[in-house]
Design brief:
The protein is mostly beta strands. It is built from one helix and eleven strands.
């Protein structure tokens, strides 16, 4: 079985930074692609970033380009999302997800964490 647990969310002022972490079950984390999505009230779940098991270039949604960085530490079974230059419109619940390949579509990810709230004040 696969279990994903996000952490690192919180309240930050506009222009600040946060680093989100996603801890995965050790045995099931291996060879999985990982993605980050976010969902604000009344909006659809939005793709943020994804990274493969191998040392490929990561993929970013338009809202994340130039500000967010996704990385993984396979030895620690952890995926990170470094968020810089945060804006109020980044406020959302952020979810990590695992799947067999990097895609931008939520339905292609089989495993999800519970989410962590990120709130950016003006």
């Amino acid at each position: 079985q696969v279990q994903l647990v996000e952490s690192g969310g919180g309240l930050v002022q506009a222009g600040g930074s946060l680093r989100l972490s996603c801890a995965a079950s050790g045995r099931t984390f291996n060879n999985y692609a990982m993605g980050w999505f976010r969902q604000a009230p009344g909006k659809e779940r939005e793709f943020v970033a994804a990274i493969s098991w191998t040392d490929d270039s990561p993929y970013y949604g338009d809202s994340a380009k130039g500000r967010f960085t996704i990385a993984r530490d396979n030895a620690k079974n952890t995926v990170y999302l470094q968020m810089n230059s945060l804006k109020p419109e980044d406020t959302a619940v952020y979810y990590c997800a695992g799947g067999r390949a990097v895609t931008t579509f939520p339905r292609e990810y089989a495993y999800w964490g519970q989410g962590t709230q990120v709130t950016v004040s003006s």
